[in-house]
Design a protein that fits this description.
2 domains, 19% strand, 260 residues, alpha/beta, single chain, Rossmann fold, eight-stranded mixed β-sheet
């Protein structure tokens, strides 16, 4: 395992690289980093793959962008990161992505299908499924809050009340995000990638934790329906982060798909 620091468009970036063989690029989720995929990275490397896991800008040891980004900037960043000749990644390669990383991977796979061998989406964010009752209530409260705090006299309390609200509904990602990254998060989650799914033409594995409460398993079935040449694997009794909960089990599923 080797940790490398490089620069992409004058932005300092950190990544981990391990193993030799066919290349696998892993994109972590929001609030995560290359550290969160260490176990899976080691297992894949031991099975004959070269595995590269970057810290997205704004996470881990990579620098934070000077201005808020949207998915377009992250997709452009990934494209530029792959041009780094020292990576030795080669193309086409395997792309594995989790949660927020799945958003970037969906955009990349739809835009550059010729650059990928296969795609794996693990509990991927990116689509807006029909909200359940709890979510609809949250949306109503949120809209009501926006109306209440719109007048200038109350505007200065808006951010603190919003943070308390997101904490109560357990959206810790929003609460933890500060400054540029909080605005980036708003940009990212506002985009629905449902229409992009049909543009994915490479063989795809959608793997999901049955008890995912962050991105519900019903989203996995939508991915399966919308992506051609797609295989679906549901991991029983597992939540949003199979790579942390059952790294060995997830790795077996991934390796089976890569070799199929």
């Amino acid at each position: 395992m080797k940790e490398v620091k490089t620069s992409v468009n004058n932005l300092a970036v950190n990544y981990k690289i391990a193993g030799e063989g066919p290349a696998v690029l892993i994109l972590h989720g929001w609030g995560g980093s290359s550290d969160s995929w260490l176990e899976v990275q080691k297992i894949l490397a031991d099975h004959g793959y070269m595995v590269v896991v970057p810290d997205f800008p704004g996470f881990g040891k990579s620098f934070t962008p000077p201005n808020p980004w949207s998915l377009k900037e992250y997709n452009d960043w990934l494209n530029d990161f792959l041009k780094d000749s020292s990576l030795g990644l080669g193309e086409p390669f395997f792309l594995l992505a989790h949660s927020f990383g799945g958003r970037v991977a969906i955009k990349f796979a739809a835009q550059y299908p010729e650059r990928l061998k296969k795609l794996i989406l693990c509990d991927s964010a990116g689509i807006k499924a029909r909200p359940d009752l709890k979510t609809r209530i949250i949306i109503i409260i949120s809209r009501l809050g926006n109306a209440i705090f719109s007048p200038e006299i109350f505007a200065r309390f808006k951010d603190s009340v919003r943070s308390a609200f997101y904490f109560l509904i357990r959206n810790r990602d929003y609460v933890k995000a500060k400054g540029t990254m909080r605005e980036t998060m708003k940009n990212v989650i506002s985009e629905d990638l449902l229409s992009d799914l049909s543009g994915i033409k490479v063989p795809t594995l959608v793997v999901w934790g049955e008890r995912d409460k962050i991105v519900p398993v019903k989203c996995a079935h939508i991915f399966k329906e919308r992506i051609s040449n797609c295989r679906l694997e549901i991991i029983p009794r597992i939540g949003h982060s199979p790579h942390l909960e059952v790294p060995g089990g997830l790795s077996r599923i991934i390796i089976s798909f890569l070799k199929s």
